[in-house]
Amino acid sequence: IYSQSHLPVLEQDEAVGHAVRAGYMYSGMADVAAITGDSSYIKAIDKIWENIVSKKIYITGGVGARHQGEAFGDNYELPNLTAYNETCAAIANVYLNYRLFLLHGDAKYFDVLERTLYNGLISGVSLDGGRFFYPNPLSCDGKFKFNADQTITRQPWFGCACCPSNISRFIPSLPGYVYAVKDDKVYVNLFLSNRASLKVNKKDVMLEQQTSYPWNGDIRLTVTKGGGQFGMNIRIPGWVRGSVLPSDLYFYADNQKPLYRVSVNGSQVQGELANGYLCVERKWKKGDVVEIHFDTPVRVVKANDKVEADRGRVAVERGPLVYCAEWPDNAFNVSNVILNRHPEFQVVERPDMLHGINEIKTEAQVLSYDASGKLAVKDVKLTLIPYYAWAHRGEGRMDVWLPIEVGAASAKP
After folding, report:
1. Marked catalytic residue, from 70, 86, 114, 326
2. Is 70 a catalytic residue?
3. Dihedral, CA atoms, 114, 117, 120, 124, nearest 10 degrees?
4. What is the pTM for the complete model shown?
């Protein structure tokens, strides 16, 4: 099972074994399916993908729950403190979902890709680009280490140095994921400031995006050269449409209903979504401006109750970013905190911190024992930062999944 050789690939229907090797093999299966059109390959890779997104992926897009064998665990086996989530496995997960998008043309694959990219992948490299994580856990007690070579601080190098070289190779390839073209359709899949030259219907088209995404949901896309008759398919992310992932593994546990708007030259576009895309079909010309707006409220997420590690807990997101509570921002043990059943959140811009982030603050309570041994409760202000930016300020506690039920909370010192 370690090397996925337990069954012929066409008989496999579950993600097993070494998560990096698996991701690379599954990407190859998707390529074979696309090149040959072999329905048996398509059926097999679709089943494996379904198993991953519905039972074996972390909210950060990380995969590979087990330290032993750097492997996928059983269905719903998603521990947080001991989560392995190798950086290379996150990159392999991007490769797989990109190829399945090319095969099927559905935005759900980019929903998974984007979640992985902004969370469990870039967490593998420090903000200055010089240090690297091998594993990417969702909880840290400041003590647990996988081994001497894989600590809870990013390292400049490893004895087995696949992760530093892999992420150094991946980051420059990111421009290739932003757009796609098929026949007379342009797909806008990722939102980041860029200029791009595309060939659409054998004509040159240049596009320019201006945005501060993911810090806000406003994107301005301009046709700066060329044009002609074609459809611009704009991905409306799953997190806008009320879907954490294209499965029931995680779900939003609040009453927020984000809205989105798309306009062309100031006129709002109406239309039904097809495979997660809003298609704007028109004869484009130089100077046309598409304005896209996504509401970005702070969201509360719960996991499927079959995920034992997350019972009684919630995670916090904003846009595509998963947040965590880390020790430098909170003058108390973040493992002892319990969130309000109906939390209210404040978003605070911090351009001075961690190369510029948005913090999230909320009222919470901390459990402890007083001098007489009785349980004590103290009101506190809890601060959260984007998960990708953790572990830059020394070793200490961090949690993505925070208690919202008393039974999940701790009162330990």
Report:
1. 70
2. yes
3. 180
4. 0.97
Give the span between the Cα atoms of 304 and 59, in whole angstroms: 11
* Gap between the Cα atoms of 114 and 189, Å rounded: 9
The single residue listed with the structure tokens 């459990």 is: 367
Phi then psi dihedrals of residue 363, to 5 deg: -75, 140
First to last CA, the chain: 41
DSSP string, 7-50: S-GGG--S--SBHHHHHHHHHHHHHHHHHH--HHHHHHHHHHHH
3-class state of residue 311 by DSSP: coil
Q: CA-to-CA distance for 89 and 136, rounded, in angstroms?
A: 10
**CA 135/CA 115 separation, integer angstroms:** 17
Residue whose entry in the numeric block shows the structure tokens 């593994």:
249
Q: Record the tokens describing residue 347, joined without a space.
A: 């978003």
Distance CA 99, CA 26 (A): 10
Residue 106 phi, psi (nearest 5): -110, 135
User: Residue 35 in 3-state DSSP?
Assistant: helix
Question: Taking a C-beta distance cutoff of 8 angstroms, is the pair 226, 204 a contact?
Answer: yes
- CB burial of residue 262 (10 Å; 0-12, 13-18, 19+): buried
- 311-350 pLDDT tens trace: 999 999 999 999 999 999 999 999 899 999 999 999 999 9
CB atoms inside a 10 Å sphere around CB 388: 24
Q: Give, in order, the Cα–Cα distances in Å from 165 to each of 86, 91, 135, 200, 259.
A: 13, 12, 15, 34, 40
Question: Residues 248, 241: contact at Cβ < 8 Å?
Answer: no
pLDDT value of position 412: 76
pLDDT in tens, 238-269: 999 999 999 999 999 999 999 999 999 999 99
- Alpha-carbon span 9 to 45, nearest angstrom: 9
C-alpha distance from residue 361 to each of 226, 348, 351, 391 (Å)? 46, 8, 16, 19
Rounded Cα gap, residues 128 and 173, in angstroms = 18
Catalytic residue among 50, 77, 162, 208: 162
- For the record, the structure tokens of 157 come out as 């190098």
Q: 77-113, pLDDT tens digit by residue?
A: 999 999 999 999 999 999 999 999 999 999 999 999 9
Determine how many CB atoms are found less than 10 A away from the CB of residue 137: 26
Task: Judge whether 326 counts as a catalytic residue.
Answer: no
